[in-house]
Amino acid sequence: MFDKMWRDMSGVAEKEKTKEEQEEFEKKQKDKAAEKKKQSKLDNIVTLKKIDLKIKKGELVFVIGKVGSGKSTLLSAIIGDLLPIPQKQIDHYARGEGLDRELTQEEVEAFQSDLVMQQNDKYFKPAIKVSGSVSLAQQKPWIQNKTLRDNILYNKDLNHDQYVDTIQFCELERDLEIMNAGDLSEIGEKGINLSGGQQARLGLARAVYQDKDIFLLDDPISALDAHVRKNIMNNVVNGMLKDKTRILVTHAIDFINMADKIVIMDKGAIVAQGSYDELLENPIFQKLQAINEINIDVTKKDESKEEDNQSDKKSSSSKKSTPSAEVESEKSEDVKEDAVFPSPLSLEEKEALF
After folding, report:
1. Sheet of strand 261-266: strand arrangement
2. CA separation (Å) from 310 to 228, 300, 304, 340?
């Protein structure tokens, strides 16, 4: 009797499990279908639209907008990572319905095929004209499994003064002081032994050292502390590179008054552009400024709390200090003097490193 009851209950549980698996399978199929439908929408195939942008030599341009608005994609288009789509082709596949039209799978494949063929057409004219050499600083830079110096030089010859200035202005001096071999320290694959801020500053230093005509800066300051960010904006973006053309993608719009031109993006399109004064009355710009002010207030409160915590720790440790602790402190200072932390920026060690 108990055996029969157990078998019946087991059978019910198995049926319920099977039902749940079936429902989960159907949900996944619906999600796949929805994603496929979304991908086939013409608006999602055309990543950037309504792009009309002219940048003069030596200008500092800020590209701002919410996450996913197409800021980084614009930089990718400038360096040629995106294929330009002729308006004629868009009109052909839109069929009067605009970018909201959903394409069939056959139409998507035909669209892609036409796009590739047009790039190979000898009469095809590129949509973007770049006058000069380009250097890109990515938000998540590509870092090699080499020394820090090799990652900055990137196969260029070593120019002592330029190299030292680059390290100093990109705020890498303090990092070199704590690395056992200074700028000759080995960096792990993908920068595994560096923090996010160190990776960003290293990527920026490499871009700056290349000394190109145009600098594309894909928010390299987002992972940095407030004071470091300020130093880099003043010493690098508006210092070392002041005579270069600079396009800075950023969420840190507290420095936006430095810009010669501001470009606001939304949903892959430029929705507004102009100087700081020209955009003051723009509602999108006003909203971004309001959000930025909230972020600044939160950051200041966090920094204030951290400073209070540090001061509390220092006061408590000073109260607990004993003569024996003072002796140990003196010993550790002796050890520190004997240790070697080479830095290419200290006056005594500049020549020793090179």
Report:
1. 134-137, 214-218, 245-249, 60-64, 261-266, 269-274
2. 19, 15, 10, 28
Range of the domain at 178: 134-292
Q: Residue 334 is encoded by which pair of tokens? A: 């002796």
Distance CA(85)–CA(39), nearest Å, equals 17
Which CATH number covers residue 209?
3.40.50.300
User: Can you give the pLDDT at residue 330?
Assistant: 38
Of residues 191 and 158, more confidence is placed in 158
Q: Is residue 207 part of a domain?
A: yes
So what's the pLDDT on residue 224? 82
**Sequential DSSP letters for 175-189:** HHHHSTTGGGPBPPG
Please check the confidence at residue 293 and state whether its pLDDT lies above 60: yes
The count of domains in the chain is: 1
- Phi, psi angle pair for 256, to nearest 5°: -65, -20
Within-domain flag for 171: yes
Does the residue 216 lie in any domain? yes
Residue of 354 and 186 predicted with greater confidence: 186
What Rg, from alpha-carbon coordinates, does the chain have? 28
Q: Is residue 220 part of a domain?
A: yes
Structure tokens that stand for 28 in this block: 């996944």
254-292 confidence digits (pLDDT tens): 888 889 999 999 989 999 999 988 888 888 888 877 766
pLDDT confidence of 32, banded at 50, 70, 90?
low
Sign of CA dihedral 235, 240, 245, 250: negative
| Cβ count within 10 A of residue 134 | 18
- How many secondary structure helices (H) and strands (E) does the chain include? 14, 6
* Amino acid identity for residue 33 in this structure: A
Residue the block writes with tokens 């102009």: 274
Per-residue confidence at 335, pLDDT binned at 50, 70, 90? very low
Separation of alpha carbons 217 and 224, rounded Å:
14
